[in-house]
Amino acid sequence: xxxxxxxxxxxxxxxxxxxxxxxxxxxxxxxxxxxxxxxxxxxxxxxxxxxxxxxxxxxxxxxxxxxxxxxxxxxxxxxxxxxxxxxxxxxxxxxxxxxxxxxxxxxxxxxxxxxxxxxxxxxxxxxxxxxxxxxxxxxxxxxxxxxxxxxxxxxxxxxxxxxxxxxxxxxxxxxxxxxxxxxxxxxxxxxxxxxxxxxxxxxxxxxxxxxxxxxxxxxxxxxxxxxxxxxxxxxxxxxxxxxxxxxxxxxxxxxxxxxxxxxxxxxx
Amino acid sequence: xxxxxxxxxxxxxxxxxxxxxxxxxxxxxxxxxxxxxxxxxxxxxxxxxxxxxxxxxxxxxxxxxxxxxxxxxxxxxxxxxxxxxxxxxxxxxxxxxxxxxxxxxxxxxxxxxxxxxxxxxxxxxxxxxxxxxxxxxxxxxxxxxxxxxxxxxxxxxxxxxxxxxxxxxxxxxxxxxxxxxxxxxxxxxxxxxxxxxxxxxxxxxxxxxxxxxxxxxxxxxxxxxxxxxxxxxxxxxxxxxxxxxxxxxxxxxxxxxxxxxxxxxxxxxxxxxxxxxxxxxxxxxxxxxxxxxxxxxxxxxxxxxxxxxxxxxxxxxxxxxxxxxxxxxxxxxxxxxxxxxxxxxxxxxxxxxxxxxxxxxxxxxxxx
Lengths: 268, 368
Known about the structure:
The structure holds two protein chains of two kinds.
Chain A: E1 7-13, H1 23-36, E2 40-46, E3 59-62, H2 67-90, E4 94-98, H3 100-105, E5 108-111, E6 114-117, E7 124-141, E8 154-168, E9 175-179, E10 189-190, E11 192-194, E12 197-200, H4 206-209, H5 211-222, H6 235-251, H7 257-265
Parallel strand pairs in A: 1-2, 1-3, 3-4, 4-12, 5-7
Antiparallel strand pairs in A: 5-6, 7-8, 7-9, 9-10, 11-12
Helix pairs in contact in A: 1-5
Chain B: H1 2-11, H2 32-39, E1 43-46, H3 54-57, H4 60-70, E2 78-82, H5 86-89, E3 98-103, E4 130-134, E5 140-143, E6 156-164, E7 168-175, E8 178-184, H6 189-204, H7 209-218, E9 225-231, E10 234-239, H8 244-255, E11 261-266, H9 286-289, E12 292-298, H10 302-312, E13 319-321, H11 325-335, E14 341-345, H12 347-359
Parallel strand pairs in B: 1-2, 2-3, 3-6, 10-14, 11-12, 11-14, 12-13
Antiparallel strand pairs in B: 4-5, 6-7, 7-8, 9-10
Helix pairs in contact in B: 6-7
């Protein structure tokens, strides 16, 4: 990969449209942790109609949006950015799609008669189900590192809120559901990953709830191992991670009759 | 919701014998359709649609659509709508009586739309809306470059708004050609637009402009919305915080206070708060970070709130985490400096705090 030593460079796709679940928090988290370590930080907003540079960024970030915004971005992503995104992934850059952004990394999202196209970087498709899958969530992941080792089993905590059910084809899930719904509420699979192309329903936002994962992304971007990053005082961060995990243990999954009624009242 | 309203009507049945009596129902956004169908109101006031409890009700567009389908089914009802909110404006029926209200004061506007903005696209054609002035969130002087839709001219409006720190606001209230000066004992632009909406509704129901001004000046802060409480010789300013747009208004108001603040911030994730606490990262906590002398973070998600304030720029040495509310309240009071003490609770935290304060004899009556 073409790491930019000393500077983390992030392309934030559609910041004006795909930002519904505090996606800004993920970017702010990375920015602060780079600054505190005196690493460089560059974030490039890439909007509708803008060209996407396949070589200029370490992370390509796609957040979540309302249905209408997602459809708007999907058309643009497929028409104008698919090739660059595929080329970036090919050279080892991280592509991180969260919630709606995750769905767009697959082949398509079917909402009744409507069909939102995806870029097909992950072999999966999403269909609108009955009721939304909502709640705190914890999954277990084990992610590869550049040096051939893996992170070992780690928890990712977050919050999920999705009407779509995602069905994986020839692609591994990102992790296994410990508490919560995951891709479809049934399989126990959450998210999907192929190399550094990562999709997940976990917002909350994801990175502030899991700074260990943020540091994996930062380390990869600046070409070091996470252990080589200057350490930070992470007492608040570790407590926040534990708090989000406790919330998932407390609340999810909730199959009470009241929860089912509430899920039906939400948009199906 | 419907049961609660029925119970309220029953307890007020003596008052309702007065032919002059007006029933005023505050209705949850999701239940409006059912409640309006059952009560056939003379008027419906729709204030704003900000990101609040997405985990309960789904997306804002869907709520706006639902409201837009409701109004044409009520031909005898006057719609009193906030012109500054493009989502609310999109609910206006093609025929039927609409009263528009809003703020006409470009000096309140922000240079850039804030991070918590919702509904920035035209609901008719999908084009990104253009703003000459942005107030809170996605409200402001908006127009659609795609289809030409624009903010309706409000007939009831506020101009020349000024603020007295976190204490109150002054503005000129206009209705058509007439105007009156108004003192509002609540801070922030969001309370001004609420007051203008209330005036628009009252005028529609037969009140005079002067009665509106007198009524607004005499009002007291309700239940944690800028309410002042005396406790142990100190004054606490209680400001409910429950969604990012509302939070931003409160945080900006705090930045108007000249002295460093002692803050008690409480984040709960119960159903009435919204289970999803992501929104704290959408709130511009940065706006108030420099004003904080010391902050105690409490509630069911205290740790995550503390982390948010750290990333907003508050030195961790100034941050104390005490999930138990009573312990947090005591720690806030015992260590506070001479300046203002501000409490920023979510909804259920406000209820808990109310009970605590009541137990210590700090507030006159219980909220029911």
